[in-house]
Amino acid sequence: MKQAPLALPVCPYCGQHFKYKEVMKNRGQEDIQCPKCKQKFKVMLESTFSILIAVMVMIILLVNVCLYIFIPNINFLYMAGVLLVGIISIVVMIPLVIRYVKPENAKYSTRTTRQKK
Ligand SMILES: [Zn+2]
Fold first, then answer.
1. Cα(40) to centroid of ligand 1, in Å?
2. What φ, ψ does residue 60 adopt, rounded to 5°?
3. From the CB of residue 8, how many other CB atoms can be counted at a distance below 10 Å?
4. Kind and range of the H or E run holding 42
5. Which residues lie across from 111 on neighbouring strands?
6. Domain annotation covers residue 117
């Protein structure tokens, strides 16, 4: 099932949707059980997450450089504020790049759990 790069994850077995709050709460866990079909799956980050961070860092730097150029006597607090807003927006977007995958499809699956075709 192909999903948009930025979207809340769904259960890989039954397609059950999860609320933003649930995804945020479960983001640190390794295994999650679907409340609907009771199957267990793993939590992984979409590869777009690293791109997202890179883009955000560039935006933060760009905004700070612009502030510095156009406002000569800029208060350092404004630049710190830009940085803070950037970090918060990354954290807020984490549930949108989390993917729920079947254990056999997890990239970090160990040899012992790998199944034969
Ligand atoms: Zn399910």
1. 8
2. -60, -45
3. 18
4. strand 40-45
5. none
6. no
Q: Which residue has the tokens 């759990």?
A: 113
Q: How many domains does the chain have?
A: 1
For residue 64, how far is its CA from the centre of ligand 1 (angstroms)? 44
Which two structure tokens, joined as six digits, stand for 68? 């510095």
Coil, helix or strand at residue 117: coil
- Beta carbons within 10 angstroms of residue 79's beta carbon: 17
Give per-residue pLDDT as tens, 48-83. 889 989 999 999 999 999 999 998 888 889 889 999
Q: What whole-number distance in Å separates Cα of residue 78 and Cα of residue 67? A: 9
| Cα 61 from Cα 82, distance rounded (Å) | 9
Question: What is the distance in A from the centroid of ligand 1 to the CA of 18?
Answer: 10
Ligand 1 centroid–CA 41 distance in Å is: 9
Measure 48 CA to ligand 1 centroid, in angstroms.
24
Whether pTM > 0.70 for this model: the answer is yes
Q: Domain containing 37: what range?
A: 20-103
